[in-house]
Each structure stands twice: as C-alpha cells, then as structure tokens.
Amino acid sequence: LLGQILDQWFESEPLKATLATDAVIGAMASPHTPGSGYVLLHHVMGELEGQRGAWGYVAGGMGALSQAIARAAAARGAHIFAEKAVCHLLLGRDGRAQGVALQDGTEVRSKLVLSNASPQITFLELMPQEQLPKSFVQRIQQVDTRSPVTKINVAVDCLPSFLAAPNTHDGRPLPHHQCSIHLNCEGTHLLHQAFTEATHGHPSSRPMIELCIPSALDPGLAPRGCHVVSLFTQYTPAVLAGGRPWDDQARNAYADTVFDCIEAYAPGFKASVIGRDILTPPDLERIFGLPGGNIFHGGMSLDQLYFARPAPSYSGYRSPVPGLYLCGSGAHPGGGVMGAAGRNAAQVALEDFRRL
C-alpha cells in the first residue's frame, strides 16, 4: 500500500498527498489500494537530462514530440500516412502479418508490422479472432482498462493568481507557474474520498486536480498575455450511476465543479476562462483509441505488469501472429512518455527481420 510507504518516510500530510497523486494518476485506484506503490515507482524511476525522477515539458506542445519522431523516421526513408485509419491487418496463408489495409482501400505491404495501438484494438478489432489462441483472446478481453481521468484543456486571458502566492504586478510567470500544481490534495484521505465516489458512479465532488500551465515556459503556445492551462482530473467513472451517459450537461456540470475548486485557490480564474475542452473517459476512448479512456492502454496493476503485460508468455513484444509486434503502452513496461516499449519492440523486430 502506498499509504504505508509514505507514512514510513514522511510526516507532512500535504507532502504525502502530493506524492500520492503519482501513485494513482490514470488509475482507478486509491492510495490505499494494494499495488498503488508501484505506480508511484513507475513515475519516478526515470530521469530527465540527468535529474532522477524529473519530468519535463515538450517545447511546442506534446505534438512536437510526435513530429520530431516523424522527421527522424522520414530522414531514414520512412513513409508516413497521416490521418489514414487502419481497417485491418493483412495476413498471409501461413498466418504471418503481411501489412495493413487502410479504410480507403489502400493496402500497405510489409514483412513486419508494429502496432502502437492498444492490445484491444490490435487483437480484437484489426484481425479475425480465430487467428489467435482462445486463451490469449480471453486474456486481452479481461484486461482491466478502467480509467478515472477527465482531461480539461483551458484557454485563459490572464495568468492564474493563487492565494498562497499571488502574482506580481507585471504578471510574469512565477516559479510555481512552471511546475505541476496539485489541488484538493491536502491529505491522502481526500484522494480516497474522491475515489470512493467514483466507484459508486458519481464524479468526485472534490476531484484531484493536477494543473499545468505549459505556456508559462513556452510562450509560443498562446497569444501574448494569454495562457493555456492543462487540467488532469480524477475521479470520473466511465459510466455514470444509473447508466446515464456523459452528455454535454454531465460534462459541463463536472467541469464547473473543477473550476469552482480552482476558484477557491485562485480567485478570478473562472472569469479568465475564454474556452474549454472537456474530455471524459468515453471521449478519450473515442478520439484517441484509449480503451476505457485509460492512458496506459490498461491498468498498471501488479497482475498486468512485467511478464503479464499484455498477456503471460507475450511480454516480449512478439504476438501470436508471426511478424506482428506490440510497441505501445499496452506492452512492457507500460505507460508514460518514455519510449521504452517502442525501443525494445524495435530491437526485437530487428532481430527477427535479420533472420528473415
């Protein structure tokens, strides 16, 4: 249990709760859920520019990272088909992967196929299941993909000014504006309460909020004097109590709750909002192909990690289909913007390619 680990090392409840957010981020779990300590380890085990446990912002926004990878691949001769949805995997008579078919009818032939899609889309939607072992299909169907995350992107016409550290008269970003700001995290019991509400089908009345202002570090993301605010919030159930859908009324009601919470810390925030984009778990699934809205393509619980990710005997990036490899967050070691799964999968695929 994460709670026990934090109690051993720290006395300050706000500090413990702040650390606890990285143990439940993206997970339908509480700090008191067994195995939550690993999720914290997963988020701090890496490093950034030699600083252990650090994370960073991508200049130009997260899309700039994808564009940098694309440019590097194109420089080596890769052909990139953007905005071209894959319809299904092409299989030869021997059952080997031979490429992909796009929804416009185009067929892209290749000796190897690496899928960055989730295991659910890769194995349950893009290929006939009779081509796979029944036990494997059952395992993929049973992967826990519950997600508590609602992402809210906000455009504001001035920098938020927090009661704990008011802005200066010139309105320039202060050090705390350039970090992750955790709200409603004064105690781990608040996180547990927020989690409990969601397990009963109700969006948290006092949600956990991780607030970032990337434009404080990267002014090119917003017009002069304006800013973009990224809100990573939880807990929100994928299906509301009584089977109610996440319609516009439900989305806006939850976003209003989040904004009311921020307003209590930073008066004037609500008046500064000039636009907002609300992405609930079903929205994250529909738009980005995240199963259940899960940013890790599947829970980072102990029964879904290491040799069991995505399924026992298939943690080495190879799949039951020869020539098909899994290289996304659903593969070992799991989610997070680190590229480990892709790099490892590429090495395995290259080994097999040389044998071909």
Describe the protein's architecture and organization.
This protein has 356 residues and is α+β, with helices and mostly antiparallel strands. It has 2 domains: 196 residues, no CATH class; 147 residues, 3-Layer(bba) Sandwich (FAD/NAD(P)-binding domain), CATH 3.50.50.60. Strand 1 and strand 2 form a beta hairpin.
Q: Structural class, judged by helices and strands?
A: alpha+beta
Percent of residues in helices comes to 25-40%
Determine Rg (CA atoms, Å).
Answer: 22 Å
Unreliably modeled segments: none
Pfam family, one: Amino_oxidase
Subunit structure: Interacts with COX5B; this interaction may contribute to localize PYROXD2 to the inner face of the inner mitochondrial membrane.
InterPro entries: Amino_oxidase (IPR002937), FAD/NAD-bd_sf (IPR036188)
Organism: Nyctiprogne leucopyga
